[in-house]
Amino acid sequence: xxxxxxxxxxxxxxxxxxxxxxxxxxxxxxxxxxxxxxxxxxxxxxxxxxxxxxxxxxxxxxxxxxxxxxxxxxxxxxxxxxxxxxxxxxxxxxxxxxxxxxxxxxxxxxxxxxxxxxxxxxxxxxxxxxxxxxxxxxxxxxxxxxxxxxxxxxxxxxxxxxxxxxxxxxxxxxxxxxxxxxxxxxxxxxxxxxxxxxxxxxxxxxxx
Length: 208
Known about the structure:
This protein is α+β, with helices and mostly antiparallel strands. The chain has 3 helices and 9 strands, in the order ββαββαββαβββ. It comes from Chrysochromulina tobinii.
């Protein structure tokens, strides 16, 4: 859990909050957008909500992958070298059809502006901001199109150019949409006073 002091959330505490937020957001998206069957998830209480997270007893490979990525993201948050996290959902590539981007969930991270007087913010207020974003992810099923095609996902981590990435990681295409082929919805902002996360989702328009 993040630590609070008389002058507000510490930098270490903010890193823990943001990392935990990413973890629940990614799991929530994978569940709500049906990238994996519901049986691959289990319910967990967080931020006053019942959220779904990957069950390692059912899909140990996926749980290990997410843990590995988030551990690295936490290290980069500590170092101040991570800029953005993007979860891309796309159709599964087949011999007949190449993969196509369906959704891009973007979490744009930036340091909160420094001020002479430390800004105090109650942890409950921060949790309320996170809960609001998680509710928006859950509500996405009401307005975003769903396809019957098999889906896969990728996590893109944007860092400073001088950051050394693990050997197993690869440079990836941004999987951007072409102009006028997507709709964008802005999500709520998370601000710990040490980090600010601006979030939005872009999704492929469905032809009538």
